[in-house]
User: Fold nucleoside diphosphate phosphatase from Betta splendens.
Amino acid sequence: MKKAKLAGLLLFITFLLLYLMLVKHRYNALKPDAYKPPPHRKYDKSTGRPAAGLTHQYAIMFDAGSTGTRIHVFKFWMGNKEAPELAHETFRSIKPGLSAYADEPEKCTSGLMELLEAAKSSIPASVWSITPVVLKATAGLRLLPGEKATHLLDRVRRVFTESPFLSRGDSVSIMDGTDEGISAWITVNFLTGGLHGARSPTVGMLDLGGGSTQITFSLQDKKSIQTSPIDYIRSFQMFSNTHTVYAHSYLGLGLMSARLAVLGGVDASPLGGSTELVSPCLAPEYSGSWTHADVMYRVKGQKAGEPLYEACVTKVEKVLYRKVVKVSEAADMDFYAFSYYYDRAVDLGVIEDNKGGTVQVSDYSAAAKRVCSSLSVSRPQSPFLCLDLVYISVLLQELGFPPQKQLKLARTINQVETSWALGAMFHYMESLRRH
Assistant:
């Protein structure tokens, strides 16, 4: 009798648990979905192939930067209406950059061929002829005299034309800074899921390079669209949706160019090939050398006087005076920050180099005060860290970010590099579809 009662009780508990699980399932099904990056596509376990309706597409992007040339070989799964999914990326790089061959453009050929061989080994030969190959050059070539840059790009076009891949007249070009920022914005929002639906929230992008700095974010406020400089607003199609973004590149306000300006130099080769620069942003007794744009500078700190931090802030504010447009809407959006924003946060120990993390704008300014104040009592680990941190903190405030604003720092998202290359490739593939 007791056994029968116990069995009945267990059966009742089992049915009760099943009922509660069913109710929970139905409740979750009725709840609005929380935002999350799109899941990986389902694959047929028996064949290892993607779900029905998907095809694969390869694409090759060359990133011709100032210090090196990098190749990204992308493999995408393409659906009829959905955004593509990145299935795989192959990455290789060589040094020096294309601009190093400005006087002997034919010598860049061997490096390009080496990278093309890496592409061949990553892509089935059967699809070489329909795989687009694209090269976008950035700051290194933007700074070259026009004729030298043209000869280099003509050499690249010849190499691409003779390759087995799909090359068109617009496959090789110099990318302007704003397009670089937009492409990085596309990359980040593709990887975070912001481009996978018309209502998916997007994030903003901040990039601090050596020669320029970019800010790009999706505008939500009509007033901001109306009051922003007209050439800062861009609209474009991506994955069947139209995006309107605020995008601008400040040439000459990258960290290395700004460092030169704060030190009192000018962005051109001085007569004689070297010069001496004295700055309040350096330790009072410091004397050393610094090379920028192939020019060797002797740099020295000023004699002890005004507190270092305050003196350096004053100098940086003069360099940035009326050069940056403040955007109030940006303060309310999530932003990712890259390049020197990331590197200096690593230097401070705020984030780990291989993991990334988050940082507040006030973290940069607090660190600047601490580092600058210590210069008069101890030898700095890096003579320019005080200057760099003051510049970053003042720049962020000039852009409209309050001290408590939190920025996300990442080198990769979902194990994919957060460079502009992926976004530029999507942009180019969109243009192929329209023609």
Summary: The chain has two domains: 55-175+420-434, 176-267+307-415. The chain has a mean pLDDT of 84.
